[in-house]
Specification:
The chain starts with a helix and ends with a strand. By secondary structure, the chain is mostly beta strands. It is elongated, with a radius of gyration of 16 Å. Helix content is 14%, strand content 55%. It has one domain. The chain has an 8-stranded antiparallel beta barrel.
C-alpha cells in the first residue's frame, strides 16, 4: 500500500501521464507482506454512472460501474496483461454516500478469461481537488486467491463537493486507478 499511496500522492503526475499518453510502468516492488504479484497502472480507470444523477437527498438510482485494468504486469501469470469489471446495481443513495467507508468487493475478468474475486473495505477522503478512494482486501477466489488486494482511485472532487453543498448533482465519477495484488 505504501507504493500505491506514493502513486496517490503524485496525482498531478498521474493526471499528466494519463492525459499525455506517456506511460510510466514500474516494476513490481517488495511489500511488507511479500512480493507484488500483479501491478496494473495508468491508464487503468473506473467510470461510475448514476441514473438519475445523485443529489443531496437519497433517492433510487441505477448505478453502472466499469473498471478497465491495464497495462498489468504479473510475476506468476505473465499472460495477464489487462482486465475489466462491469457491474450494475439498483440502490437508494445520495452524493453523501460517495464519501462513505464500508465493505466492497468485485470480480475482475482478465484478458486470459480467468477471474479474481476479492472483498474488503473502501475508505474515501478529499485531498485538495481530488476524491481519493482506497480499497483494501483479500482475494477470496480465482487467480491470486489468498493474496492481498490494494487499489487507489483518484477522481476530481468538484462535482461531488458541489452536490454535497446542495449546489449540483453527480451523474458520473471518472477515476484513474492503480491496483496491486501482493502475495500473502
Amino acid at each position: 500500500m505504501n507504493r500505491l499511496r506514493t502513486l496517490r500522492g503524485a496525482t498531478a503526475l498521474s493526471l499528466f501521464t494519463a492525459l499525455s499518453g506517456v506511460g510510466l510502468l514500474a516494476a513490481p516492488a517488495s511489500h511488507a507482506a511479500g512480493l507484488a504479484d500483479l501491478t496494473c497502472s495508468l491508464p487503468s480507470n473506473r467510470v461510475t454512472g448514476f441514473d438519475p444523477p445523485l443529489t443531496l437527498a437519497a433517492q433510487p438510482t441505477h448505478v453502472t460501474l466499469a473498471t478497465t485494468y491495464g497495462p498489468c504486469v504479473s510475476l506468476s501469470h505473465p499472460d495477464i496483461t489487462s482486465g475489466s469489471t462491469r457491474e450494475t446495481v439498483d440502490t437508494t443513495m445520495s452524493c453523501l454516500d460517495l464519501l462513505a467507508t464500508g465493505p466492497v468487493g468485485s470480480t475482475i475478468t482478465w484478458n486470459t478469461g480467468q477471474t479474481t474475486t476479492w472483498s474488503g473495505t473502501r475508505v474515501t477522503s478529499v485531498e485538495g481537488a481530488d476524491i481519493i478512494t482506497d480499497l483494501t482486501g483479500t482475494v477470496t477466489s480465482g487467480v491470486f486467491e489468498g493474496d492481498v488486494f490494494e487499489q487507489v482511485q483518484v477522481a476530481p472532487a468538484t462535482a461531488i463537493l458541489a452536490c454535497e453543498a446542495g449546489a449540483g448533482t453527480v451523474s458520473s465519477v471518472n477515476a484513474t486507478v492503480t491496483t496491486e495484488i501482493t502475495a500473502a
